[in-house]
């Protein structure tokens, strides 16, 4: 290019710049309408997965790691905090013990549950067509009561955690091995999937959040080798339960963004992440954890709200039941106590080693186990066991065996009760509908109810309606019907009239709400067996096509059902109990317990790591500045599920 041509091009560019400046000056003179402040779209920037940390907090185990890691770090989700004053009473959160076990009816309920378990075991034939021979616990007891342990070589000895330098806190394995005589309180910050807020020491919401921050910061700094001051360059993906406490999630997000200093966060549900981790587009996700079992139907990355169910039992209840059965069979380690952390660890190991759901294994078998405790010799025990190894895990299908009395055993997802920081939520949208919309809707409802056998049209319930029908479990209405319209429970004419007049007359509304509360409390006090809960969750899906998809893909994750024979056992029970109409529609009922041959305990975490790599997650990031300015509104705007 010649010098003359270069000068000509430069002249053209200067003319263009002058034209732009003129346009700007003209625009400055024009008054624009004031637009309401909107939440800005996230910046579209390339995200490096090795700068994303995935956190999956469980009741007993924390799984945390970079999104690029093959496997996460897995550590006990526990902290030991040193007493601030000498002579302070010692507090330790329970591990296997829980409320509702020492009621007068507990033992009777346990015995009744065990009778049902034994009946189920003996009624089913083995694969060779022969019925199982019942094994009496007395046969095993006579042998076990004579057993004396053998002393092993103590060259490898377990030691208590060294607290001579008086650390203010200890985390994970170190916290588990704190000597009970040392001045430390032991806290598990998550219980049954929710923050462990209670009336005892360290049970306030502030204290629990401080425990979480300390544990996570310690692991990130010491085990992931990331200085806390560098977290401003990192993003975080937080996995939350399907049925979540909105206040708790909000506080944890604030802690991660404002206290720990992450630059951005995505909050997503465990069940959806489980489908990502297993490579399935749709599945009925059954997450059997240590203390709770959650179920949810996920279709194309969306969790169906009506299908969500949380059962307040899990692997720890199986462990405790196994201990009770071991005691009945004359367990030779007679000093075992449920109040001891180390004994709880031993019992959990014995459950994972001995228990199974294979009905072809029958009769008495001899086993051995070791005990290695600090300040004690290592011992080797012999133990003879029969049906105890099958009876304990079957408690998941007959939860009365756990002997829990007077506790809420089933939880459903409730609608948001509103938040002062987020005034424009679904309650606001319902309350600000125009009068015309409300009157036309009321007329449509009257027509629907006037039809023969009139139930509600489902439209109202899908939008929340006056009484939030979508909160009600399916088939719990006074009509006693098992089905419902559009995934909701059916209501008879009387119930429909109560709701229809709710906007005009106060009595029917209060009557409906009190009846709804009674139905809910009755449903939530019942402990559904795992197979019945799966059928209930699938039955709450809106269409037959969705139900068919769910029956053909039942994904079991978590560590609570990792027993030999669990897949075949669960499949047999579901096929036997599913509605006859669906047996003809569903080509193939499939229970998946190890997708891609992966550890089912890590699948949800792996799904969170997959989420970090997807281009579609760009718009889901909540940045620190946005959270500071808009707060919890950002979760409603950006969360991949209905907040």
Task: Provide keyphrases for this structure.
7-stranded mixed β-sheet; 6-stranded mixed β-sheet; 643 residues; single chain; alpha+beta; 38% helix; 22 helices; 21 strands
List the helices and strands and how they pair.
Layout: H1 3-28, E1 52-57, E2 61-66, E3 73-76, E4 79-82, H2 106-123, H3 137-144, E5 150-151, E6 169-171, H4 173-176, E7 184-187, E8 190-191, E9 194-195, H5 205-222, E10 235-240, H6 246-259, E11 264-269, H7 270-278, E12 282-288, E13 293-299, E14 302-303, E15 309-311, H8 315-328, H9 341-354, E16 365-371, E17 379-385, H10 388-391, E18 410-411, H11 426-431, H12 435-450, H13 459-462, H14 493-500, H15 506-525, H16 530-539, H17 544-551, E19 554-557, H18 566-577, H19 580-585, E20 591-592, H20 603-613, E21 622-623, H21 624-630, H22 633-638
Parallel strand pairs: 1-10, 10-11, 12-19, 19-20
Antiparallel strand pairs: 1-2, 2-3, 4-6, 4-7, 5-17, 8-9, 11-21, 12-13, 13-14, 13-15, 15-18, 16-17
């Amino acid at each position: 290019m010649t010098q003359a041509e270069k000068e000509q091009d430069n002249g053209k560019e200067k003319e263009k710049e002058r034209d732009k400046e003129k346009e700007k000056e003209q625009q400055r003179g024009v008054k624009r309408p004031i637009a309401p402040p909107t939440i800005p779209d996230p910046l579209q920037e390339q995200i490096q997965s090795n700068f994303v940390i995935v956190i999956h907090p469980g009741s007993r185990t924390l799984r945390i790691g970079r999104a690029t890691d093959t496997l996460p770090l897995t550590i006990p989700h526990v902290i030991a905090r040193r007493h601030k004053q000498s002579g302070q009473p010692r507090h330790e959160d329970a591990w296997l013990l829980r409320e509702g076990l020492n009621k007068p009816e507990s033992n009777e309920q346990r015995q009744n549950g065990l009778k049902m378990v034994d009946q189920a075991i003996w009624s089913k034939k083995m694969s060779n067509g022969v019925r199982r021979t019942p094994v009496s616990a007395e046969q095993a007891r006579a042998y076990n009561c004579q057993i004396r342990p053998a002393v092993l070589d103590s060259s490898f000895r377990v030691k208590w955690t060294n607290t001579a330098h008086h650390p203010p806190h200890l985390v994970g394995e170190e916290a588990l091995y704190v000597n009970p005589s040392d001045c430390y309180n032991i806290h598990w910050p998550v219980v049954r999937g929710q923050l462990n807020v209670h009336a005892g020491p360290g049970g306030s919401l502030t204290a629990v959040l401080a425990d979480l921050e300390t544990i996570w910061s310690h692991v990130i700094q010491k085990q992931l080798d990331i200085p806390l001051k560098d977290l401003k360059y990192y993003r975080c993906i937080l996995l939350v339960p399907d049925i979540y406490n909105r206040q708790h999630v909000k506080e944890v997000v604030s802690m991660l963004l404002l206290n720990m200093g992450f630059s951005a966060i995505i909050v997503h549900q465990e069940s959806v992440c489980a489908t990502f981790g297993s490579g399935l587009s749709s599945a009925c996700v059954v997450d059997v954890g240590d203390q709770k079992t959650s179920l949810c139907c996920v279709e194309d990355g969306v969790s169906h709200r009506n299908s969500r169910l949380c059962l307040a039992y899990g692997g720890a209840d199986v462990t405790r039941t196994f201990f009770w059965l071991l005691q009945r069979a004359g367990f030779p380690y007679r000093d075992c106590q449920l109040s001891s952390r180390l004994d709880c660890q031993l019992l959990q190991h014995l459950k994972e080693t001995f228990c199974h759901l294979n009905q072809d294994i029958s009769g008495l078998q001899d086993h051995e186990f070791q005990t290695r405790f600090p300040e004690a010799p290592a011992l080797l025990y012999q133990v003879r066991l029969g049906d105890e190894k099958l009876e304990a895990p079957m408690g998941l299908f007959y939860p009365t065996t756990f002997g829990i009395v007077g506790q809420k055993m089933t939880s459903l997802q409730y609608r948001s009760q509103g938040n002062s920081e987020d005034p424009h939520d679904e309650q606001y949208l319902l309350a600000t509908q125009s009068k015309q919309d409300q009157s036309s809707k009321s007329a449509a409802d009257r027509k629907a109810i006037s039809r023969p056998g009139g139930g509600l049209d489902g439209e109202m319930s899908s939008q929340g309606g006056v009484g939030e029908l979508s909160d009600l479990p399916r088939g719990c209405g006074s009509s006693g019907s098992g089905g419902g319209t559009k995934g909701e429970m059916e209501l008879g004419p009387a119930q429909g009239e109560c709701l229809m007049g709710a906007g005009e007359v106060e009595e029917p509304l209060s009557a409906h709400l009190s009846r709804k509360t009674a139905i809910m409390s009755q449903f939530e006090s019942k402990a559904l067996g795992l197979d019945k809960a799966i059928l209930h969750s699938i039955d709450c899906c809106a269409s037959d096509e969705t139900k068919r998809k769910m029956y053909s893909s039942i994904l079991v994750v978590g560590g609570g059902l990792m027993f030999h024979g669990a897949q075949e056992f669960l499949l047999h029970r579901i096929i036997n109990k599913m509605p006859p109409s669906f047996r003809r529609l569903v080509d193939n009922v499939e229970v998946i317990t190890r997708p891609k041959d992966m550890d089912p305990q890590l699948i949800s975490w792996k799904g969170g790591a997959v989420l970090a790599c997807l281009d579609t997650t760009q718009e889901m990031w909540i940045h620190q500045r946005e959270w500071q300015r808009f707060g919890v509104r950002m979760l409603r705007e950006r969360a991949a599920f209905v907040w």
